[in-house]
Amino acid sequence: MTKPMKFTPLFNIFCRDVERQMRFYQAIVGWRDIPEWSSSIYRVLERDGVQIGFNGWKAFELLGLADRRRAPRQDFKVSAMLSFVVDEPAAVDEVAGSVPELGGRVIQGPFPTYYGHWQLVFADPEGNVARITCPKLPRGVEIPVVDLA
Questions:
Q1: What residue numbers bound the domain in which 85 lies?
Q2: pLDDT of the residue at 78
């Protein structure tokens, strides 16, 4: 390459109900929907040049991935995780309270990590795993000691 190219991050999630998934994440992170890019099998949210796309099952075929499509079930193993960084620990707590109301499930947290973050791990309505993490701990919470060996 003679000139550096600009790459804009776009993360995609395969899902059964693209509208429901998009609305779930929009309610949590508050990003804007881009309706002009939408179709019956695709929705996208955007903020500050970062995008999250929601692809319906038909996208497996269109992308040449039909042989990789998983059976639609809620208990598949984790192969990817969306992570969102927030500025204040209170935002992690707020999301933890809204996840069940929006049809998701809290897996762990909020909790302090060994690297000093306040974090929540959750599953969206279709079982995909995501987390909200803050690089600060709430007042009075200490970094746990964890044996990493």
A1: 80-138
A2: 61
Query: Using an 8 Å Cβ cutoff, are 124 and 24 in contact?
Result: yes
| Beta carbons within 8 Å of 105's beta carbon, 6+ residues apart | 99, 122, 123
Q: Does 143 reside within a domain?
A: no
Q: Does residue 94 form part of some domain?
A: yes
pLDDT in tens, 63-107: 677 777 766 665 556 667 788 989 999 999 999 999 999 999 999
Sequence-distant (6+) residues with CB within 8 A of 52 are 10, 11, 12, 13, 25, 31, 44, 45, 46, 82
Mind spelling out the 3-state secondary structure of 56-80?
CCHHHHHCCCHHHCCCCCCCCCCCC
